[in-house]
Design a protein that fits this description.
The protein is of the alpha/beta class. The protein has helices at residues 38-51, 67-75, 85-92, 102-115, 126-167, 187-197; strands at 7-11, 16-22, 28-35, 56-59, 79-82, 120-121. It has a six-stranded mixed β-sheet. Helix 2 (67-75) crosses helix 5. The relative contact order is 0.12.
Length: 199
């Protein structure tokens, strides 16, 4: 792990964020879209922590769409600053290039936090942090339950297909069953089950 300083700007969105990482000279180290889900956000945090032991994060939203990101950052004791959307909009005018894009806004946020020392730090209160940790744990449980539920549904559909095929196998010209050697069902049963059993 390198000890160099990096600044991370996050342009937060409902379904996805854009992350932009700058070094001390203002050179881009990383710039990419990040889905607003725990796996992708955790991957980004790991990626940035591999670049620097103490990155400085900045977001344009103090909650809302950025809530999951903030919870994951605070869970890892990361320092997060807040640059309001209006400040991003005003600062954007000083940067040449395209008009508003997520990538450009993330760059502006990262560059502003790199140059300015007067930005407010986002710090959760004890109650807020406890609630976020509880919500994060609940979200992880729901994701695990959903995964288990989908696995059970797929297994049940497969069993039903095999049973239906054994009851009414289609025969071809040679009189052999159309069930494949692996025991999968004919496509017409698959179509019926897919329509009826889709969760």
């Amino acid at each position: 792990m390198d000890s160099k300083k990096v600044w991370v700007g996050i342009d937060a969105g409902k379904e996805a964020h854009w992350a932009h990482v700058l070094d001390a000279s203002g050179m881009k180290i990383l710039s990419r879209r990040v889905e607003n889900d725990e796996a992708d956000l955790s991957g980004l945090i790991d990626e940035v922590l591999a670049l620097s032991e103490e990155p400085l994060w900045a977001v344009d939203q103090p909650g809302g769409s950025a809530a999951l990101l903030l919870a994951l950052l605070w869970e890892r004791d990361q320092r997060v600053l807040y640059l309001p959307g209006l400040a991003v909009e005003r600062a954007r005018e000083a940067y040449p290039g395209e008009s508003k894009t997520d990538a450009r806004d993330a760059y502006v946020i990262a560059d502003q936090v790199r140059m300015r020392s007067n930005l407010a730090r986002l710090v959760p209160g004890e109650d807020d942090l406890a609630e976020l940790q509880l919500l994060l744990a609940r979200r992880r449980d729901l994701v695990a339950d959903r995964t288990r539920s989908r696995s059970k549904s797929v297994s049940r559909v497969g069993t039903l297909l095999r049973l239906m095929s054994s009851i009414t196998p289609r025969t071809g010209k040679s009189g052999e069953s159309s069930i494949s050697p692996a025991g999968s069902a004919p496509s017409h049963w698959r179509n019926i089950c897919t329509r009826v059993m889709t969760p």
